[in-house]
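Retro notes - structure team

What went well: the batch runner handled both jobs without manual restarts.
What didn't: labels got mixed up in the shared folder, which is why I'm recording both outputs here explicitly, each with its sequence directly above its tokens.

Job 1
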Amino acid sequence: MTEILRRARDRAPLVYNGNRIAIFPDYTPSVAKARAAFMDIRKALRGRKGVRYGLLYPARLRISHNEDVEFLDPSNSYCLYHSAILAHW
């Protein structure tokens, strides 16, 4: 499976019969649940100027706003959001 994902990434965008397709890895239920816990903070960060974020495997949120910070716990990411990011608006 890893080889399929690597080749799909190397040959992106994949097109079949004129339609773009995407291939994503399956996560275990526990990893999927841990990643879903970051959904609210990701929605709050979406569209914020000067803020970049991404979800890393297995379930780490990286927020870039003046510096890179990684979180394993969603509640800690909310603390940064409220104290540092909202202070600029």
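Job 2
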Amino acid sequence: MFLLRSPDDAGGDAAPVQTRPAAYTVRDIGDGSSVNAVLASREDDSLALNEGELFEGHNAQIANADETIVFALRDSDLTEDCSTAVWGQELAAAVEAAGCTQVGRATYVSDTYFAVTAVFNLADVEASRALAATMVDPAEAAEGEGADAAVRGFVLAPSGADPFDRLGEGYSASDAIVSGHYLILVWVQPTSSESVDDRVSLAGPLVALSNVNDPLLRRVGWVGDGDTDEETDGADTTGTTDTTGTTDGAGATGAGGAGTTGTN
């Protein structure tokens, strides 16, 4: 596990930690979904993201269906300088190559978890898939299709203040969800976790947090002039595994596409 701290003390202006999750899974809801079809290209969805769209309304507080997990928004940032939202020179280059024009990041806290979300505005759905593949940890990537794409780096939280100064010290998991020309990343760590060996299923909070895609579902209606067929509370995908090959449970938001193997 790579973890690099800023020399600054944790606090309101603390720099984010350069780290990555213990488990990372790419989830693709497939070309047949309305999100991937209607929002396939930024040429068809040219209106820029805005802060109100990303961080207000439903995304100010995100919960699962029975509200047993409730995340409250804490920090947020929307920038056109996409390279500042990630660490690792190779990943920054991959973000640029994907045609990134915006990335919105946020931190969320609940009673038992803290989390990071990111929404990348990219050129098209293939750029989204390519960027998701680059964030597989190259040290753990299995040989085979896609392994050569992995580069060193990951998303930076928009804040390094407590508890995000401990991000990566405990066991955490992340899903990268291909959503048309957007790539959504959700990343969760239990507040009580003190070691990457404290393995627990984080399927529940990851699925809950994937409801951060609400603005994209609304865009499907605007751009496609109709309703989306996507669910907003985590319809299961199949074949999703975490870094050590054990199944981590439920899948990402959307019509049931197949997930891909994650690595740490």
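One thing worth noting from job 2: The longest helix spans residues 214-224.
We'll revisit the folder naming next retro.
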